[in-house]
Amino acid sequence: MTAGSLLTPELLAFIGKPMWDCETTLVREDDILRYQEALADTLIIREADGVLRAPPLFLPAFHHGGVIGEDGRRRKPGEIELPVKVKRRLMAGCRVEFGVPIRAGYTITATTVIESLTKKQGANGPMLLIVTATEYRNQHGDLNRVERWTVIRR
Q1: What band does 64 get if pLDDT is binned at 50, 70 and 90?
Q2: Alpha carbon 142 to chain centroid distance?
Q3: Which of 129, 142, 116, 107 is CA-nearest to residue 22?
Q4: Measured between alpha carbons, how far is 7 from 112 in angstroms, rounded to an integer?
Q5: How far apart are alpha carbons 85 and 14 in whole angstroms?
Q6: What predicted TM-score, i.e. pTM, was given to this entire model?
């Protein structure tokens, strides 16, 4: 039996679905400059039109609120609840792909979907590996960045 066949149709139905409500925020020049100051990054890049370009790993602050769940993690508004019993969570890795640089004045929208689910049997019991993909796009629809996070829930 393969790991994929251990997934129920109920769980498989979550693949491709939004993990929580999309978030939108405005990129302010002050936010970029504070970020660079915190990192002691002295390379300030302004485009030909004078607009400040953010460093590659910069993301503006997204305010999402939410409540603390039983596992100690803050739940975001509209977050879906997977039908699995969760006692522990472990961040297992992240991959980042970069697109168009983020610039001051952009309005960035972050959309997170469940990209894949894999059930595995660990030494201490069953585990669910969840891969989410978050796309960050500006107001023109240009892709600024994609983050793929793998989380282990057991």
Answers
A1: low
A2: 17
A3: 107
A4: 21
A5: 16
A6: 0.85
